[in-house]
Amino acid sequence: MRVIGILAVGATVAVFTAGGVSANPGPAREQAPTTCAAPVAGQPNGKQWPAEPGLTIDPNAGYTATLSTTCGTMTIALDAARAPRTVNSFVFLAGEQYFDHTKCHRITTEGIYVLQCGDPTATGMGGPGYSFPDENLAGATYPAGTVAMANAGPSTNGSQFFLVYRDSQLPPDYTPFGRVSAGMNVLTSIAAAGAKDRSGDGAPAVDVVLDSVAAVRN
């Protein structure tokens, strides 16, 4: 089965597939992650900005993001050279504590295999108030470990992003801007629990909250 698309409608990712159910079933949905804790006290700040932040990162430098979640910590190597505006926005939002206390609102276990985060409303409709163009799409692929932007169509990137936990077929429409460099076991453990409604696409069965997200220059 070939996945036709994954896009944020408004900001909610919608998945369209050809041929119905994936020929490659996703991970079992009975297994819960081994370590998930209650979230740190606090609420998303929901800040809004009228325009994309100015470029303050060095595209020639390396940057690392640390996602401290209720189910464990994941580290992302950010690709500033190939996606400077995307990494700049991510670093900016992390510095504004925009991602802190936000819930990862979507897991897919059929056709494509992603965990989607970055929406302070946890509805799939939230964003920072600005958008910016796509980057790094030429020849883009989405193997396990890829971190890419969700969108509502061309050049509508905001704050929502997805982490690929299993090789996924997607058209090159979603800016890849990093890779999981540590904590892949956390991501696959979350995915193993599947969706809360036991469908192939919905809210994760376990609450996955980003207690904090920090991005630093290496």
TrEMBL record:
Identification of the protein by name: Peptidyl-prolyl cis-trans isomerase
Family listed: Belongs to the cyclophilin-type PPIase family.
InterPro entries: Cyclophilin-like_dom_sf, Cyclophilin-type_PPIase_dom, Cyclophilin_A-like
Entry function: PPIases accelerate the folding of proteins. It catalyzes the cis-trans isomerization of proline imidic peptide bonds in oligopeptides.
UniProt entry keywords in alphabetical sequence: Isomerase, Rotamase, Signal
One Pfam short name: Pro_isomerase
Domain PPIase cyclophilin-type: 72-215
Top-level taxonomy: Bacteria, Bacillati, Actinomycetota, Actinomycetes, Mycobacteriales
EC number: 5.2.1.8
One function term, GO molecular function aspect: isomerase activity
Signal peptide: 1-23
Alphabetized CDD domains for the sequence: cyclophilin
Keyword Coiled coil carried by entry: no
